[in-house]
Amino acid sequence: MFQKYDVIVVGAGHAGCEAAVAAANMGSKVLLVTMNMQTIAQMSCNPAMGGVAKGQIVREVDAMGGYSGIVTDHTMIQFRMLNLSKGPAMWSPRAQSDRMLFAHKWRMMLEQNQNIDFWQEMVGSLIVKNGVVKGIRTSMGIEIEGRSVVLTNGTFLNGIIHIGEKQFGGGRAGEKAATGITEQLIELGFEAGRMKTGTPPRVDGRSLDYNLMEVQDGDENPSRFSYTETPKLQNQIPCHITYTNDKVHDILRTGFEQSPMFTGRIQGRGPRYCPSIEDKIDRFADKERHQLFVEPEGRETCEIYINGFSSSLPEDVQYKALVQIPGFKNVKMFRPGYAIEYDYFPPTQLHVTLETRLVKNLFFAGQINGTTGYEEAACQGLIAGVNAHLAIFEKDPLVLSRSEGYIGVLIDDLVNKGTDEPYRMFTSRAEYRILLRQDNADLRLTPLMHKLGMKNLDDRLSRVQEKKQNMSIIRKYFSETGVSPDLMNAYLLSVGSAPMNQQIKLASVLSRPQVSMKGMLEALPELAAYLNQFDQETIELAEIDMKYEGYIVKEQELAEKMIRLEEVRLMEDFNYHGISSLSFEAREKLTKLRPRTIGQASRISGVTPSDISILLVHAGR
């Protein structure tokens, strides 16, 4: 009935979908197994992609041949570039998506890939022989052979949903939990833990009074996530902003005695940076109000997502509090918010390839590794899918360094530091932010993936090469072309910059903090005419490269120093306990985590600089 597959992906959320297409586009024959074919790529929480640091991840996924950016561009209803008032390292794209169209588009793209087959059923266990995964066993007892397996189970492993004092098994509202895999993995020697996440109530947009809320429109000239020619967004739909108040807080407090979070029924830790509304008013009791984002679920539905009102309080308490929010007096609730508790496996049990240390050719990706967010899940799925393919064909793995991508930062953090709360990406986690901007992901990563053999990247590589060439032409023009004071001084004075006394190069003018390319183009019609031959994206890239050249060079030098440490390999069977000069904690951590390089060892919590110096001596450096 079933052939032997190269890669079996268990779970069809954001991690599973990206894992399946990554392995398939590398050339593997893939089976994607899901408990429900109707919920492939479901946006379980908010109907949005991107945001601070998360938007950079989506662009990286797209640059590497993943589909999340393409799907988002085809289905978004609003686009905003966040943090434009800050430097370009902080600019982060975010899109409001049509939830139903998003899942539909993903499924259509999956089905168009001839290397992907589907099976709808719960996976009860793995087939493992002599420490190597050999396939899966379904709940009906069907055995399917696979040369590698990627687990992307999301919140489904022994999931329990909490609403007030009520609790019931489930991996998501209306869907049953998955059982069996956790117990087997523990028997195999894995360590498991519990985490929690939550979601807000969904309400009827027809029952809201938007006149009492602030309007939040999208960008006037919306951009996109994908580096391909996806459709330009038309007819954006606004979101709205409203706020809680003292009445709302007082009503919510009446339900604290029934809250599973405060009564101890929930043992797992929730995301610190996305707390429930009851957690907010408990932890920040001095705050008079909390901001809420009223987000439409799509173009053709009246369902509304209340971002910022995640709750597991009793449904009647949630409703009584909602009606006290401005604009919500006549609100009709579709379903209450809830908390969900689920199993995860501390990611220190993984190699940086996302392959498990205990079972060969078994990979974990997404919330099973303790992360939160569609974007964090998607990028892990892509890396796991690629490495599952490379492993079975005995090729060198794909490992991104911290200076190559936010994806590299995320995986490095997980594997070397672990996490005991849902991990979320922030720009502050990346030490090379100016190198890892959202605008240059294709320049950084597309050539790498093309070289690895990812299909359908020929056109993308040509675009990258053309973009690099045009950036070089623009830079050369700016470094060689002078401009006289009489043409520039009026503009310079208007932006508070010192006037010029003599002719200087365009590059020197642009390097001034107050000066922008846009302002220069308005002041210099000849320059605007020259740059008309280039697309706007290339011009912006060239501007950033010229304007922040000093910072970029400095970060590149720091990254190269770290790369030299990454080149010093450590043997898999290195006897750390035999080096008495290492601290006891370092010996324990290094023995447990088995870093591949000195660079990786340097980022393990508890390993000191002096420990690294000792390792360098023993490594012959």
Structural class: alpha+beta
Radius of gyration: 26 Å
Instruction: Count structural domains.
Output: 4
Uncertain runs are none
CATH superfamily membership of the largest domain, which one? FAD/NAD(P)-binding domain
Provide the residue-averaged pLDDT: 94
What does the secondary structure layout of this molecule look like, with pairings?
Blueprint: E1 5-10, H1 14-26, E2 30-34, E3 48-50, H2 54-63, H3 68-75, E4 76-82, E5 92-97, H4 99-111, E6 116-120, E7 123-129, E8 132-138, E9 143-151, E10 160-163, E11 166-169, H5 181-187, E12 193-199, E13 202-204, E14 214-216, E15 239-243, H6 246-253, H7 260-263, H8 277-283, E16 291-296, E17 303-307, H9 315-322, E18 333-335, E19 338-344, E20 362-364, H10 374-392, H11 406-417, H12 441-452, H13 458-480, E21 482-483, H14 485-494, E22 504-505, H15 506-510, H16 517-523, H17 525-531, H18 536-547, H19 549-566, H20 584-593, H21 598-602, H22 609-618
Parallel strand pairs: 1-2, 1-9, 2-6, 9-20
Antiparallel strand pairs: 3-5, 4-5, 7-8, 8-9, 10-11, 10-19, 12-19, 13-17, 13-18, 14-15, 15-16, 16-17, 21-22
Helix pairs in contact: 1-10, 2-10, 2-12, 3-4, 6-9, 12-13, 13-18, 16-17
Walk me through what this model shows.
It is built from 22 helices and 22 strands. With 621 residues, it is an alpha+beta fold. It folds into four domains: 5-197 and 342-452, FAD/NAD(P)-binding domain, CATH 3.50.50; 202-217 and 232-336, Beta Barrel (Elongation Factor Tu (Ef-tu), domain 3); 458-553, Arc Repressor Mutant, subunit A (Orthogonal Bundle), CATH 1.10.10; 567-618, GidA associated domain, C-terminal subdomain (DNA polymerase, domain 1), CATH 1.10.150.570. The strands form five sheets. Strands 1, 2, 6, 7, 8, 9 and 20 form a seven-stranded mixed beta sheet that branches. It has a six-stranded antiparallel beta sheet with strand order 14-15-16-17-13-18, with no helix packed on it. Helix 6 packs antiparallel against helix 9, helix 12 (441-452) packs antiparallel against helix 13 and helix 16 (517-523) packs across helix 17. The model has no long low-confidence stretch (mean pLDDT 94).
